[in-house]
Amino acid sequence: MDPIIARWDRTEIPPTTATDNTILCCLADDGTPIALILSPDERRRLARELTTPAPGLPRHLPGGRRTVHRRRLTTR
Q1: What is the DSSP string of 5-66?
Q2: Where are stretches of biased composition, namely Basic residues (predicted)?
Q3: CA angle 30, 34, 39 (to 5 degrees)
Q4: Number of neighbours of residue 44 by Cβ within 10 angstroms
Q5: Cα dihedral value 47, 48, 49, 52, nearest 10
Q6: Which one of 43, 59, 71, 75 is most buried, by most CB atoms within 10 A?
Q7: Distance set, CA 52 to CA 6, 13, 35, 41 (Å)
Q8: How far is it, in rounded angstroms, from Cα 66 to Cα 51?
Q9: Average pLDDT, stretch 52-61?
Q10: CA of residue 49 relative to chain centroid, distance
Q11: What is the domain partition of the chain in residue ranges?
C-alpha cells in the first residue's frame, strides 16, 4: 500500500489545556482533508525535530538569525 501524500495547509487547532491534543489540518494531493493529531509529547518532539538542524548545517538562518526552539507550533 502506498502512503497518502499530504501537505499542511497552514491551519492549526491549538490545544485549550496543556494535556489536549493539537490538530494540524492537511490536504492530500487529491484534495481530501486529513487531520494530523499530535499529543503534547508528540508536538514537542516534532517541534524539536523541525528546529534542530541536520548534522553539518549551521544553526543560523539566512540573514544571521538564530533558530529558536518554540514551545508550540504556530501558523505563521
Answers
A1: PEEEEEEEE--SSTTSPEEEEEEETTS-EEEEEE-HHHHHHHHHHHHSPPTTS-SB-TTSPB
A2: 62-76
A3: 155
A4: 16
A5: 120
A6: 43
A7: 23, 24, 24, 16
A8: 10
A9: 69
A10: 9
A11: 6-51
Amino acid of residue 10: R
| Residue 14, number of CB atoms within 10 A of its CB | 13
pLDDT higher than threshold 50 for residue 73:
no
Question: In this structure, what C-alpha cell is assigned to residue 72?
Answer: 508550540
Give the three cell numbers for residue 70.
518554540
Reply yes or no on whether the pLDDT at 56 is more than 90. Answer: no
Single-letter code of the amino acid located at 38: L
Grid coordinates representing 58 are 549551521
Q: How confident is the model at residue 72 (pLDDT cuts 50, 70, 90)?
A: very low
Question: How far, in Å, CA of 50 to CA of 3, rounded?
Answer: 21
pLDDT of residue 35: 96
